[in-house]
Protein: Pyruvate dehydrogenase E1 component subunit alpha
Organism: Pseudomonas schmalbachii
Amino acid sequence: MPHSKLDLPFTRYLDPDGSLIGELPAWADDSNLLTRLYRQMVLTRLFDQKAVAMQRTGRIGTYPSTLGQEAIGIAVGSLMRAEDVLVPYYRDIGAQFLRGVRMEEILLYWGGDERGSAFVDPGCAEDLPICVPIATQALHACGVATAFRIRGEHRVAVTTCGDGATSKGDFLEALNVAGAWQLPVVFVVNNNQWAISVPRRIQCGAPTLAQKAVGAGLHGEQVDGNDVLAVYDRMQWALERARQGKGPVLLECITYRLCDHTTADDASRYRSAEEVSQAWREEPVKRLQAFLAAHGVWNEQHEQALIAECQQRVQQAVDNFEALEAQAPDALFEHVYAKWPAALDDQREMIAERIARRQAASAAPAAKPEEPRLRLVSGQKGGLHHA
Ligand SMILES: Cc1ncc(C[n+]2csc(CCOP(=O)(O)OP(=O)(O)O)c2C)c(N)n1
Ligand SMILES: [Mg+2]
């Protein structure tokens, strides 16, 4: 575990084997709460497995798994209030589900469908969509938090990102404005040790990522990101502090990306099997399960019933997703601008004409000349070519 030369706090309650280190905070006496956290982590993991399988069978596009990082999202999502705003990145399904984002919306998003960013549940209607451009969401969160400040609302913007994202200018600019204006924002860093194939140790010279907060005038600390109790405890504190106008917080959650970066990656090309199997010994789901079992509130029967229930819920989401008709291709223009920019009229018309030509061609294939089709040409740079 890295230690800060600045002596920033590091919190852990559960050892990798689930045994307790020291005394738990009072909120953890509620065994219903602890089993709820566990159930949500299992649901997230099972959905995640299914999403990977759906990509492998060509039913969605590229998908970034959250395997091994479930504790972070579950703690964040469990604690945020409905009126807060989540500004997520692409490894946040655990938090998003708890906010009210539907599992089928996540499948829609990775299936290239705009409805995956237009959340139906009013509980998350103001949350921002998944952000793929690295670290840009940190600035959006500061914008949201500035609006809360101007309106005098006691709401908090929570934004998440990876370890690699903390090396980007956008992230550092966001920290700066958050510190300068003491905004009600919490930055949650999922330090999963890798930014695609770049390991944490060569991304940044600082011993911890949490200390980036210090230079910007924020409170920063580290937490064991595989110990959901630790993340929950520090996140609760951070949210409360930000809500009371006492300033922003950066929480560095130390975890490990047990999966490939995305389904388009093969992590075995750049990291050792030993490293990954060592990391499996620290993973968050088994850790909490062992703790709950040792305290007599979880057993094999509960586990089997939970798995069956989660699988049924995941399958229902898949069925809902697959029953939806595909969106019209020009839907890609929707939801982006509050006020349509006239400069994009040409592009929209071009797509509309193209769709109309295709529809006419498929209605009467023999009578119409074939539209040039896109196909993959292997071995050529770029991959996509007109056939
Ligand atoms: C602005 C930008 N640059 C590059 C990329 C390509 N890219 C996608 S994920 C990624 C690494 C991100 O690593 P990290 O921040 O640690 O998050 P993780 O994926 O590990 O959760 C990069 C460079 C991108 N999506 N956006
Ligand atoms: Mg990372």
